Amino acid sequence: MNEYELSGIEIIARGVCVVDGKVLLCRAKGGATTYLPGGHVEFGETGRTALEREVCEELGVPSAVGKFLGVVENRFIQHGKPHAEVNLVYALSVDADPASLASREDWISFEWRDLSRLDDLLPSAFRALGSNPEAVFTP
Question: How confident is the model over 49-107, as pLDDT tens digits?
Fold first, then answer.
């Protein structure tokens, strides 16, 4: 494989959790960008199951995965190689006081961000949530 070949395509389940005009976002510690909570769909899992598992692992709280909001495809360079992901996007609610949510993982942090401040949210298609928090994503 040469350095320009695709390094992989990942399937990611992501959740849109909006409470009182704020959306729940993740950030890799030391990272410059934010993203919606969620993670990789493992072999044999549905997107819904993966999202529930990831939220439980990362936040330690139960969640409810709601309606399917669509798919967002994303291409980017990671470690100098082309990379791609297919994001399965769902409505999400967490069974906890929003002020009490904290990461259980040492490499990520969570924050509640006003919907008007999504300029560092990736993939950029998710920034549509700022003007329409009930957005449906279609390729």
Answer: 999 999 999 999 999 999 999 999 999 887 788 889 999 999 999 988 888 999 999 99
Strands in 1-139 per DSSP E? 9-16, 18-19, 22-28, 38-40, 63-78, 81-94, 108-114
Q: What pTM does this model have?
A: 0.91
Nearest CA to 9 out of 68, 69, 75 is that of 75
Q: Which domains does the chain have, with CATH numbers?
A: 9-130 (3.90.79.10)
**Could you give the CA distance from residue 122 to residue 29 in angstroms, rounded to a whole number?**
15
Encoding tokens for residue 73? Answer: 């495809």
